[in-house]
Amino acid sequence: MSAPAFPTGSILGYPRIGPRRELKKAVESFWAGKTTVDELEATAAELRASTRERLVALGLKADDSSIPEAFSFYDQVLDAAVTVGAIPTRFADLVAEDGTIDLAGYFTIARGAGQNTPAEMTKWFDSNYHYLVPEIGPETDFHLASDRLLRQVAEATTSGYTTRPVIVGPVTFLLLSKPSEGAPEGYQPLDRLDDLLPVYAELLAGLAAVGADWVQLDEPGLVSESIDVPRERVLAATKQAYELLSSVPIRPQIFVAAPYNSLGDALPVLDATAIEAIQLDLVRGSLPVGFSTTKTLVGGVIDGHNIWRGDLAGAFSTLESLLELSPSVAVTTSTSLFHVPHDVQDEPLLADQLKNWLAFADQKVGQVATLASGLIDGKAAIQGELDAASAALDDRHSAVGVRDGAVRERAAALTESDFTRGDYAARLAAQDAALGLPFLPTTTIGSFPQTGDIRKSRAAFAAGRISEDEYREAMRAEIRSVVELQEKIGIDVIVHGEPERNDMVQYFAENLDGFAVTQNGWVQSYGSRCTRPSILWGDVSRPSPITVEWSTYTQTLTPKPVKGMLTGPVTILAWSFVRDDQPLRDTANQVALALRDEIVDLEAAGIGIIQVDEPALRELLPLKKKDQADYLDWSVGSFRLATSGVGEATQIHTHLCYSEFGVVIDAIDKLDADVTSIEAARSKMEVVPDIQSSGFGRGIGPGVYDIHSPRVPSVDEVTQLIELALGSIPERQIWVNPDCGLKTRGYDETVESLTNVITATRAVREAH
Ligand code: GLN
Ligand code: ZN
C-alpha cells in the first residue's frame, strides 16, 4: 500500500484558546488552585475534540491528516522544549525520576517559582505572539521527556480522526534557543544538533506507532534573516536534520512548514533530503524562481496573519503557478491560524458590510476547502466562490470611509520639518529646568492593576447599567487611589494608571475614526493572555480629544509631574488587523497625525511629560534584510511625526518591551525620544551595554522589575540591576522603572515590588 498523499486542503494550525477563551479560563483556574489537573486535562481534551469536529464541519476531512494536532497549554516552543527534555537546570527538580515532567512542572517553567525566574519570553517572528526561549547548554540532557503529543494523536485516533501532529522543528528550536547561563563564551545552542536529532527521531517513530500518517515540523527559523547564526550553518543544520529524520525507518511522512516568509536558499536544501512535502508561505513570501521538484508543494496562499477575506481568485492562480513547479500541489494557510480570531459570524455588532470583507479562522478554513475543491475538480467548480470574494473586495475599495479627502490632503502636505524636534541638548536643559527631577528618577510604565471593580464598572457602562457620569466618577476614584499609592511609595513621575483602557490599542481604536472593534475576536498573545485586535479598515482621524481629560484630572491631584500616556502609531498598527490596500507607511502616518493632535492638546493642557508607547516596534520588523530599511524608515518616521508637534520643554518618553534590541538599536536612537524605557529585568540587563555602545545619549530606563511573573523582586535584586545599569551607562541618563505596565498584576505584589524598587533606588542614590 502506498503512503497516503498529503491532504489537498489543510491548515497549519488553529486558535487554541477556544471561541470563548475556554482554555484561558481553565488554565487560570488551575493556577488559582480552584480546579484539579484532571479537570484541566478534561477541559483541554474537550476543546481539542470540539476543534476537530468544527474543522470537519468547515470542510476539512477527518481521516486524511488535514487537521493539525497543534494544541498547546501555554506555548508551542515550551511544548517542544519539554518534549525533548530541554529543562533549565534551575528547574531540575521538576523532572521526575523517569525523566518526565508533568503539567504543573511545565507551567512552572513558564511562570517561575520562588527565586527561580521563568524562561525568558520573546516575540515569535514578526507577530504579536510571544514564546518562551529555551535555554540550551552543554549540560542539557536531551531525551523524550513528555509523551503528550503522542497521547493527543492517540486521543484523536480513538475518536475516529487521523490528525497531523505539529511540533517546532529541530533547527528552528535550536535557533530560537539561547545559551544557558553557564554555557561557555561563544557557545551556540545549534552546537547540540547532533544530540537533539535522535530525540526527534524517537518522537517520529513514536508518532508512527500511534497512527500518524504525516507529521508537521514547523521551521520558520529558516526564513528569518534576523537570527544570529551564519546562514551556511543554518543550511548545514537543515541538511543534517532532515537527512537524518527522513532516514528514520518507520516514521510518518514529513511535512516541513516554513511560515512567515520565503525559504530562499533553504528550499533547495530541504528539497535535496528525503522529506515528502514542503509548505511555502506565498502571502509574505513569493514563488521560488527557477525551482522545480517532485515533492508535494503546499501553497500557503490564505493569509494566516490577517483577517481580510482577500483575493481568493488571486490565491487560486498562485496555486496554478505552483503547479508549474511540482506535479503535486496542495493548499494551506500562510501561517497557523492562531494569529486570528475564531469566527466572523460570532460578531453580532459588526456591520454586515464590514463582515463581508472579513475572514477569521473559520472562514479561512472554508477558503482553504474551496481552493482544495478547485485543485481537485477544476476552477470552474469554485468560480461562484471566487466571484463572491472578488465582489466583496470591489465593494470594500469603493466603500464610504475607506478614503477620506481631508485625511489624505493633510498627509500629502507633510514636509521634513513635521518629522523633527529641536536639538537634544537644548531640550534637555529646558526639561531639567521645567521638571526638576532627582538623580535616578523613578516612574512606572503606565498601567496599574486592572482590578475586578474596574472591569465591572467598564462592563456596566458598556451595558448601559451606569451613566457616563457614574462611570467617570468610578474611574476618577481609581485614579485618586493610584496617585495616592504612588505618592506614598515615593515615585517621582506619576501615572494615572490607565483604568479607563480595556486595552492599549483598542481604547484608541474606539476613539478614532477608521477602526472597528470586535466582541469575541481574541487572539493569544502569550500563555493564557489574549488580546482583541481592532480592525483598521478606513482612513484614520481623531474626532475629538481622547486622553486629555484623564491626564489633566490626574495633574490636579498631585504637585509631581504627571506623565500623559498614549500608544504609538507603529504599535497601533501592529496590534490591529490593518487594511492591506495601501502601504503601511501611509496608514501609519494617518494614525500619527491623529496622535500628534492629541499630544499637542496634552501639552496645551499643562502635561509636561508624554509617553508614547511603541512596544511593537521590533515586532513588525520584516524578517528579510532587504525589507528592513524601508520599514525602519516609515516606522520611526511615524513616531517622530506623532511626537514632533511639542516644544522643547515637553519631555517625550517612549516604552519598548521585548528583549531583542540588536537590529533596532539605531532605530531606537532615531525615534529621538527624550527618555526610553525598555524591558531588561529578565535578561539581567543584557541589552544595556549594547545600547550604550551604540552611542545612545538620551534618557534610558532599563526595567528593574519583571512584571510578567507574580514574583516580587527583592531589594537586593533590584539594587544589583540598577548597579549593573550604572556600570555601563552614564548616570544622568538612567531612569528606574519596571519592565512594563502593571495591568496584569495583583495589587499586593505590585505594592511590594514597587516599594522594593524605591527602597533600592534610594539606597543606590545614597551610595553614589
Ligand atoms: N503603557 C502601557 C501599560 O503600562 C504599556 C504596555 C506595553 O508596553 N505593552 O500598560
Ligand atoms: Zn511594555
TrEMBL record:
Binding locations of Zn(2+) 1: 655, 657, 679, 740
First-level EC class? transferase
* Binding positions for L-methionine per the UniProt entry: 445-447, 498, 613
Pathway(s) served:
Amino-acid biosynthesis; L-methionine biosynthesis via de novo pathway; L-methionine from L-homocysteine (MetE route): step 1/1
What is this enzyme's EC?
2.1.1.14
SUPFAM superfamilies from the UniProt entry: UROD/MetE-like
Question: Which branch of life, at top level?
Answer: Bacteria
Q: Per its Swiss-Prot or TrEMBL entry, what cofactor is needed? A: Zn(2+)
Binding positions (Zn(2+)): 655, 657, 679, 740
- What name does UniProt use for this protein? 5-methyltetrahydropteroyltriglutamate--homocysteine methyltransferase
Q: Which organism is it from?
A: Lacisediminihabitans changchengi
Identify the coding gene: metE
